[in-house]
């Protein structure tokens, strides 16, 4: 992962150096500017991922600088934070609506600014790596470096923190795979660090190894009850640290592969709504120590405007005129209404009314700032736990739905395959039956037809008029039956057997078929045109069947036309042409084209245009076997055109 670069623009040397040290300690490269002129020069050079801009500069307005930055190519992707002592709601909204990703009021917490920038960059999660990341929290720089020298040769990636508070923020920011924490430190001790991690939905499964110089059994029990996974005395050989660390990492619960949620100790924002801001000053200072940015609003309208522009982690609402109505208005807004809301007042009597209005908690001012701070933490922790549970349920439900969809798709595919196999088997049986019956019928039909002809030609025992009529009907019926059997045999041949594809001269084949058709009725004169140089990559025998049926049809249905014309040609690309056979004959009713290819379907009477009704079905089957398509166009009395394709093998 490349090292992120941050541009810091502030006219205060103290602020610049404070932010410089905080960002540099977190692995950023910093570019420092004191004026708008220097900032614009930095804009020209580019090369930064984050910009922290002071709103009030001696020669520029930070909001205007933001607008200039956003207008530059690539500037819309730069994470931008506005930093200002002008922290009123109107100022914040102006900055956010201009395009800022974050607006932080002064006094600020440097840890919040750094953590929020990394969060906006999307670097809050630990990058995928083969090395296990270990966070070492100890107030002794010497001991931190000893552990680094011990762990890094063993393949661990080591990050460090000098205090419990810094360690919690670093853990929230970097999400290590394990934590080694000193038991005794200024500020919060190691046991408190572990207890707070166990209460944090994002960190509670992180293995923790606690180290202390104490050697009594009571201390060990106390540390383990705080939630430590292992306990090591500093007097022991450091090799014990390696062994116990390997053990807790190896046996730690495998994390569910769900989207990571925000940490309780990561960068957060608390909105306070009250006109009595002096009462919240101490709370703001305490929350900033925990890494929270505190935003103040005077009334409910300002609070709703700000919440619409930027979500917060918790709302503290001071009891006063219209406070209950403000609480109800906030809770009625979708998404915003899920934000934890703590109301504060002077009397216990207001508790039930505040909870009835929708507040999540109520704290008396008399209980002190630390009590209010603890309640805010509890509500944020509760909300994060609920979010984590909901996210896990939704993810499990999504995965179950995906699995159910896959099972259903697999079952459908299996059912479809079984149906296709059964259909293919039944078609093969039907085709075999059709071919067998057709062959078996040929013999008896020939006998019937032969005896009928013999009786009609018999001179020694001449037939009477009625007998001759009956024998003629028998002979004609046998002939029609023979034609039908022959058509069924052609259909069976078109439906089974292997395709023998080859490149052949389709123009020559067409003329051969035309010659055979004309020979059967030499008295008729039809004007045939055939496109030259037609070729096809197909089974020549089946293509001949297609041409015979279509040209015979065109020949038959132009019988009543004074000047019959039949055209055979093609259009489209040479490697996949679209062939056509067009005539100016009887045509067929518009909208009935699909019925032409059904077995035994007829759109004209047999007396007018005799036929079996199988020919076009055979054509359709032959074209489909080549993977092609066929359709017809026509109108009554205006001829017909049959289009078909014979796609080559890919």
Automatic annotation (TrEMBL):
Q: Which GO terms describe its molecular function?
A: phosphorelay response regulator activity; phosphorelay sensor kinase activity; protein kinase activator activity
Which EC class does it fall in? transferase
Q: Which residue numbers delimit the Histidine kinase domain?
A: 436-650
Query: E.C. number, please?
Result: 2.7.13.3
InterPro entries, per database record: BphY/WalK/GraS-like (IPR050351), CheY-like_superfamily (IPR011006), HATPase_C_sf (IPR036890), HATPase_dom (IPR003594), His_kinase_dom (IPR005467), HisK_dim/P_dom (IPR003661), HisK_dim/P_sf (IPR036097), Sig_transdc_His_kin-like_C (IPR004358)
The record's PROSITE patterns line, in alphabetical order, gives: HIS_KIN, RESPONSE_REGULATORY
* Classification via SMART domains: HATPase_c, HisKA, REC
A biological-process GO annotation: osmosensory signaling via phosphorelay pathway
Question: Which residue numbers delimit the Response regulatory domain?
Answer: 5-121, 133-249, 269-380
GO terms under cellular component = plasma membrane
The entry's protein name is Sensor-like histidine kinase SenX3
Q: Which organism is it from?
A: Winogradskya consettensis
Q: Give the organism's phylogenetic lineage.
A: Bacteria, Bacillati, Actinomycetota, Actinomycetes, Micromonosporales
């Amino acid at each position: 992962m490349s090292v992120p670069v941050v541009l810091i623009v502030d006219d205060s040397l103290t602020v610049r150096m404070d932010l410089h040290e905080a960002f540099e300690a977190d692995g950023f490269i910093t570019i420092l500017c004191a004026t708008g002129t220097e900032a614009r020069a930095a804009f020209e050079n580019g090369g930064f991922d984050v910009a922290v801009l002071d709103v009030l500069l001696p020669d520029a307005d930070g909001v205007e600088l933001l607008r200039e930055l956003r207008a530059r190519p690539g500037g819309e992707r730069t994470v931008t934070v506005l930093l200002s002592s002008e922290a009123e709601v109107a100022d914040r909204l102006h900055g956010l609506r201009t395009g800022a990703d974050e607006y932080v009021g002064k006094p600020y917490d440097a840890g919040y600014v750094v953590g929020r920038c990394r969060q906006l960059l999307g670097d809050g999660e630990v990058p995928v790596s083969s090395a296990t990341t270990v966070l070492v929290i100890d107030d002794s720089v010497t001991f931190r470096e000893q552990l680094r020298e011990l762990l890094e040769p063993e393949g661990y990636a080591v990050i460090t923190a000098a205090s419990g508070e810094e360690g919690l923020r670093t853990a929230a920011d970097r999400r290590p795979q394990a934590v080694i924490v000193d038991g005794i430190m200024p500020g919060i001790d190691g046991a408190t660090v572990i207890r707070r991690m166990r209460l944090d939905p994002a960190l509670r499964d992180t293995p923790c190894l606690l180290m202390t110089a104490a050697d009594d059994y009571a201390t060990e029990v106390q540390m383990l009850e705080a939630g430590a996974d292992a306990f090591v005395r500093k007097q022991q050989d450091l090799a014990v640290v390696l062994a116990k660390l390997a053990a807790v990492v190896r046996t730690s619960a495998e994390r569910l592969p769900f989207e990571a949620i925000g940490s309780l100790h990561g960068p957060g924002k608390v909105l306070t709504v009250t006109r009595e801001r002096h009462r919240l000053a101490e709370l703001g200072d305490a929350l900033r120590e925990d890494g929270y940015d505190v935003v103040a609003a005077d009334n409910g309208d300002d609070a709703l405007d700000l919440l619409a522009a930027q979500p917060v982690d918790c709302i503290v609402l001071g009891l006063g005129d219209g406070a209950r109505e403000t609480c109800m208005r906030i809770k009625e807004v979708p998404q915003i209404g899920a934000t934890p809301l703590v109301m504060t007042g002077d009397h216990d009597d207001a508790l039930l009314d505040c909870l009835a209005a929708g507040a999540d908690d109520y704290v008396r001012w008399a209980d002190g700032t630390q009590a209010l701070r603890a309640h805010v933490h509890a509500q944020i922790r509760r909300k994060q736990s609920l979010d984590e549970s909901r996210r896990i349920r939704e993810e499990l439900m999504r995965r179950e739905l995906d699995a159910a969809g896959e099972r259903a798709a697999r079952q459908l595919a299996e059912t479809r395959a079984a149906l296709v196999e059964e259909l293919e088997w039944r078609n093969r049986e039907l085709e075999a039956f059709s071919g067998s019956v057709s062959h078996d019928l040929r013999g008896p039909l020939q006998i019937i037809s032969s005896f009928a002809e013999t009786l009609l030609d018999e001179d020694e025992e001449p037939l009477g008029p009625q007998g001759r009529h009956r024998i003629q009907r028998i002979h004609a019926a046998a002939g029609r039956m023979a034609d039908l059997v022959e058509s069924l045999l052609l259909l069976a041949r078109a439906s089974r057997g292997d395709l023998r594809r080859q490149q052949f001269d389709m123009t020559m084949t067409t003329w051969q078929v035309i010659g055979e058709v004309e020979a059967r009725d030499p008295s008729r004169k039809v004007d045939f045109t055939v496109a030259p140089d037609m070729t096809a990559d197909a089974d020549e025998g089946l293509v001949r069947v297609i041409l015979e049926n279509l040209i015979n049809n065109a020949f038959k249905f132009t019988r009543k036309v004074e000047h019959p014309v039949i055209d055979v040609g093609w259009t489209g690309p040479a490697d996949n042409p679209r062939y056509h056979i067009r005539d100016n004959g009887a045509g067929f009713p518009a909208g009935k084209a699909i019925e032409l290819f059904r077995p035994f379907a007829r759109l004209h009477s047999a007396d007018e245009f005799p036929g079996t009704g199988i020919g076009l079905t055979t054509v359709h089957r032959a074209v489909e076997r080549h993977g092609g398509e066929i359709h017809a166009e026509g109108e009554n009395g205006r001829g017909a055109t049959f289009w078909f394709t014979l796609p080559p093998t890919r």
